[in-house]
Amino acid sequence: MNNLNLPANLHDKIYQIYVNSNNDFSKIVSYFPLSEDEKRLIVTLNNLKSFDGFHSIFSDHISEQEWHKSKAQIIRRFQDELFDID
User: 40-51: b or e for each residue (b if 16 or more CB lie within 10 Å)?
Assistant: First the structure.
């Protein structure tokens, strides 16, 4: 994953970052949809101005408490399922 300037709790929510040929961030994929505040923080901390390339793998919204309680399991399960595809 390319480096974004993010606090650790937000960094954990990001699955993948895509960069275009100009080495600019073109797409940020999170496990679950980010809140508007989280998106704003990413844009502000990284000086992305009018960036709108936020996407998520899963469409359901989960609370911060749910995320902290189960993030390791969610990440591990998702990565395990990707390896099973090979």
Answer: ebbbeeeebeeb
Residues in the chain: 86
Residue pointed to by tokens 């390339």: 53
Question: Which residues have C-beta within 8 Å of that of residue 75, sequence separation ≥ 6?
Answer: 12, 31
Q: Find the mean pLDDT for residues 13-35.
A: 90
- Arithmetic mean of pLDDT, 9-19: 89
Q: Which amino acid is at 39?
A: K
User: Could you give the strand order of the β-sheet that contains 25-30, starting from the edge strand earlier in sequence?
Assistant: 14-19, 25-30, 54-56
Tens-place pLDDT, residues 54-65: 999 889 898 989
How many Cβ atoms from other residues are within 10 Å of residue 30's Cβ? Answer: 20
